[in-house]
TrEMBL record:
Protein name as it appears in the record: RNA-binding transcriptional accessory protein
A GO term, aspect molecular function: structural constituent of ribosome
Residues covered by the YqgF/RNase H-like domain: 37-136
PANTHER family: 30S RIBOSOMAL PROTEIN S1 (PTHR10724), S1 RNA-BINDING DOMAIN-CONTAINING PROTEIN 1 (PTHR10724:SF10)
A single GO BP: nucleobase-containing compound metabolic process
Record organism: Streptococcus pneumoniae
InterPro entries: Ribos_protein_bS1-like, RNaseH-like_sf, RuvA_2-like, Tex-like_dom_sf, Tex_YqgF, YqgF/RNaseH-like_dom, YqgF/RNaseH-like_dom_sf
Pfam families, sorted: HHH_3, Tex_YqgF
Amino acid sequence: IERRIRTELTEKAEEGAIQLFSDNLRNLLLVAPLKGRVVLGFDPAFRTGAKLAVVDATGKMLTTQVIYPVKPASARQIEEAKKDLADLIGQYGVEIIAIGNGTASRESEAFVAEVLKDFPEVSYVIVNESGASVYSASELARQEFPDLTVEKRSAISIARRLQDPLAELVKIDPKSIGVGQYQHDVSQKKLSESLDFVVDTVVNQVGVNVNTASPALLSHVAGLNKTISEN
């Protein structure tokens, strides 16, 4: 009896956890898009430098750059980084900066806020970058940006994630998006099925523009599969 009760409780707990992960994913996918803005994606780091990517209002990559805005960078490097960021804002008409919430995010936020004192019309927002590194190392990202490093692709993903979270997040395995702790403690098959169902449901609920949507997004539309969506 004790074993049966333990099994039943474990199954209930697993179902509850998977439901919570699914709800978290749904909330992430349904974050309101910020379309029609020129965005600068800012992927923070300490020693290796921050990777920047400017994308136009449609999400097309305009330029990428590496700067050293936080310690252990020298005072001279940090001053150069301020100038470089200001130049990018002015040259490309950046309207908003999307800062990834990973390593060195807080220090990078302080740096960006300092630079934006000279650009009162430009704002910044912290973006959940979970899964961006997974996408940037994927075959899909390599096809889209074959000449860019993984880190620069990640900055592009962060910028696009602010513009259209749904369109960007569908490129990533839902389990890599970071929808909750202890994901690996539940049945991976059940978790995958539940998360995939959430993605399909949200895509069909929101709808897509077939002329501009990526194959990754179209493949979740009812009646379309991966092969059809790529044609």
